Amino acid sequence: MGAVRGKFGRRPGKYVVLPIAVVVLIAASVVWWQWPVDEEEKLALPSRVCRGTFSGSVFKPFFEEDEGKLRTKVDRELPEYPAEFPVCELSGDTSRVSFRIEELLAARESRKEMKASHRQVAELGPAYGATWQYGGTIGLYIPCPSSENSRAHIYMNVGSSAAKMRETNVKAANKGMRKLADLTGYTARTLAHRYKCEGADELPDGPVQLRAGDGKL
Predict the structure, then answer these.
(1) What tens digit of pLDDT does each residue of 100-137 get?
(2) Helix, strand, or coil here: 22?
(3) Of 139, 124, 143, whose CA–CA distance to 192 is shortest?
(4) Looking at residue 44, what DSSP letter applies?
(5) pLDDT by residue (tens digit) across 29-72?
(6) What is the distance in angstroms between the CA of the first residue and the CA of the last residue of the chain?
(7) Neighbour tally for 212: CB within 10 Å
(8) Pairing mode, if any, of strands 209-212 and 153-160?
(9) CA distance 1 to 81
(10) How far apart are alpha carbons 180 and 63 in whole angstroms?
């Protein structure tokens, strides 16, 4: 008699070939579905941005949800010529951060005047300014005296799409403004040293302090 056959005259091995193949296919599908997204799809920040002015790592909180490639636009030779109002803008697919710098012979408004005219003011030691939350920006006057002009200032405006006030998303805009306060503090210290402002070391570490003003702007 020939080889022993299983029930119904078929070899036992034939019962398990198809089920094993199905199990392998299902397992492979599960592994593929749960495989982490390629990190390269997330937006990659360079080590330096705005022609080497700022560290790229400080912008990570602003581009966490973005993918693809960071786009950079620089106008009027930032940072070399602050008297020409240079601008740098960084953008991803959904987020944007921008900088504008001005070299001034004197501050346009005093600290007292800023507090009187704005809803929220910003302070960083001797530097002072205000927020414009509907535009998502913080403006700051940084004392930059020299032997030629003791009243000279650098004015900078730092903006982020994450800090823009939205009627339906006030909580998120407030969170974005706190991030922007951190970035503005870093930017002020960086520029004060970049332009060799006397008293640059007087700017404290950390974010600019946001306080209530008496005005409506």
Answers:
(1) 999 999 999 999 999 999 999 999 999 999 999 888 99
(2) helix
(3) 143
(4) B
(5) 544 445 444 445 678 899 999 999 999 999 999 999 898 889 99
(6) 101
(7) 9
(8) unpaired
(9) 99
(10) 13
